[in-house]
Amino acid sequence: MRIGELAARAGTTTRTLRYYESRGLLTARRGGNGYRTYDEDDLKLLRQIRTLQDFGFDLEETRPFVECLRAGHPEGDSCPASLVVYRRKLGELDTLIEQLTSVRAQVAAQLTRAEAAAPGGPEPKCELGGHG
Amino acid sequence: MRIGELAARAGTTTRTLRYYESRGLLTARRGGNGYRTYDEDDLKLLRQIRTLQDFGFDLEETRPFVECLRAGHPEGDSCPASLVVYRRKLGELDTLIEQLTSVRAQVAAQLTRAEAAAPGGPEPKCELGGHG
DNA sequence: TCTTGCCTTGACGTCGGCGTCAAGGCTTAC
DNA sequence: GTAAGCCTTGACGCCGACGTCAAGGCAAGA
């Protein structure tokens, strides 16, 4: 198949595929007219990249998975190098979630304080008795 | 005080202060020699910006806080517009944390699956009996 | 043959928050 | 006077993952 069809089947754009190629991921054969030609394996490889990208992996972080598939392994994460990336990512995610949770708490505290200090009353969430 | 001192006292750089000025935050008076001159109020304003930046707020999102302080309010979040930003940010943080938590779980699942499928054994976390 | 729609390479644009360099002016210490 | 250390404006660089435009080639249908 050609680049347009591959892009469509992977839910991305031709520009993206050429970019991946420029980065050394996703190589392509060429037809007699110079057009790029791909097969089902390329689709599988591309879907591996896209899945990881959706997870927030950098393009470089997908490289071990790509090389693993190219080496003939059944899955992109069938190789130790891929597992290393998984574990590192888990650590990064934990750290990030922790930081964001902390920030969330601080912002919430600021909001509560600011609302309490606001003129016109602190916008009560529940009205204890009274309904007017 | 001049720009270098203000930057130092706020733990940032002169380049950053000029950038804030170019964005319309943090205005400055000028001395006879053309140098920017700041006072303690400017420092307070700058610290407000920096705090929000550390929380992950975009520069644009700090504008209501800045305008609130400029209007003479005691705190940057003494104005309704600032509270709106707080609430929106809380929502964004909740969404983001939720997404990251979901991704974390998916990555963890992939790692577990890949480890189980790996040749050479699934790297057991604990050894039940046997120690050699 | 002409249009339409794919494809090619090349190259500049985007976004945010600055970093960094250039070229020069003011002030103070020595 | 001159070197050091502050300041000024202007402008290009950076990062990542592409978007978008330009100029042109190839293929297929009417």
Q: How many alpha or pi helices of chain A?
A: 5
Helix content of chain A: 55-70%
Number of E strands of chain A: 2
Mean pLDDT of chain A: 92
Oligomer: homodimer
Between the first and last Cα atoms of chain A, what is the distance in angstroms? 69 Å
The two chains with the largest interface, and their residue counts, are: A-B, 29 and 29 residues
- Physical arrangement of strands within the biggest beta sheet of chain A: 1-2
H-E string of chain A: HHEEHHH
Low-confidence stretches of chain A: 126-132
Name its key features:
homodimer, elongated, 132 residues, 62% helix, two-stranded antiparallel ribbon, Multidrug-efflux Transporter Regulator, Chain: A, Domain 2, DNA-binding
Give a written overview of the molecule.
Two copies of one chain form a homodimer. With 132 residues, chain A is mainly alpha-helical. The first copy, chain A, has one domain (3-116): Multidrug-efflux Transporter Regulator, Chain: A, Domain 2, CATH 1.10.1660. The first copy, chain A, is 62% helix and 3% strand. In chain A, helix 3 packs antiparallel against helix 4 (59-70). Chain A is elongated and about 75 Å long. Chains A and B meet through helix 5 of A and helix 5 of B. Chain A binds a DNA duplex (30 and 30 nucleotides) through helix 2.
